Amino acid sequence: MPPAEMLNASLDHLPEERRERLRTITQALVDFVPLEFLILFGSHARGDWVEDRETGYTSDFDFLAVVESETVASDLSLWSEATARARALAGGIPVQLIAHDLRYLNAEIRLGNYFFVDILREGVLLYDSRRFQLARPKALTREEMLALAEHNFTYWYGSASVFVQNCRYSAVQGRLAEAAFLLHQATERYHHALLLVFTAYKPRTHDLEDLGQRIERACPALAGALPRKGSEEDERLFGLLRRAYIDARYSKSYRITREELGELDRRVRELALRIRKACIERMESLCGKDAVRTDLPAVPPLDEPLLEALPMPAEPAAIEGWKRELIVRSEQRGREQGKAEGIIEGEARGIAEGERRGKAAGIIEGKAEAVLAVLAARGIPVDEAMRARVLGCQEEARLLRWLQRAATATTAEEALEEQG
Is the pTM of this model over 0.90? Predict the structure, then answer.
């Protein structure tokens, strides 16, 4: 039996009013997006949905939209509009819509991603173009689920902690808006770590409000771990962190003080500690406490030594040594991150090859960071386009030329010149 036929096709377990809303939403999405499949999953598919009139809580309509094209699946503006249209027809019922291309979805199903396997097992098929088939799922053992959870936690939690360190480094340098953006990235990745451990899935969103709601649904014990509402101060600080993803990079009006950044750093660290505890407990529930690795990454303690700022020396003779020290520090940080990413990739393509590629990427990243660090230390402004150009460069020789010029150039344009 093809996996699409494994899905339930009946909404008879729902009240007629909800069935009609789902039919209306389905037609609206079919008319708006080139769908191959639309699947209802979660509590409304299982039949254990909740509508609490006293508290006002109502379970979401959860939809998985499957399209043929990866480009369409990645079009965030398209899916934002699609979600808005579905919510307008949902009669006040919250709507969560995730979208993936067929190739990605089938690959995840074959690997046994239990988030998607559960959708096939429990979901309701609302629409089928009948042009494609879904893959046959592989059921993971508890040992395999633990290995996947450890794998995801090690990468995403460890990566988040690197961003925390980079945030503190930028703060030391006085680049507070940049530090706020890096703290946002750390927070986002801590959320991803928990979602992947609990569900083996992370959504395509950078919105900390949405991510906060998702981790609280996955692990109710985390409610309030990063205060979003309640007091005016909580809302103001969370708003600063939430807006940092866009405004801290692109808006000159974004402002954050050292005190605000320090308080947000403390709150994110508290969130990270609680997420780590919840994730380890979840992993222990799979195969027992003794089966869980003891070397899982931890959040950097507040008193951990940071990559301190290196003021540019006044004496010309000392500049070369200062520059070499910047290179060493930046390359070390890039190499550590690159090696970690290489090891993750290596699990799919061979550990040795992945580690080799990761180290090489880390060296490149380190030199790119060194270019930006030299310019920043000399007080030379670098706009977003130039920063992206430096960080996107994969040619070590070119980065070395830029690094040499950064020590003497008077503008970023001069440092990145290709002639002379």
Answer: no
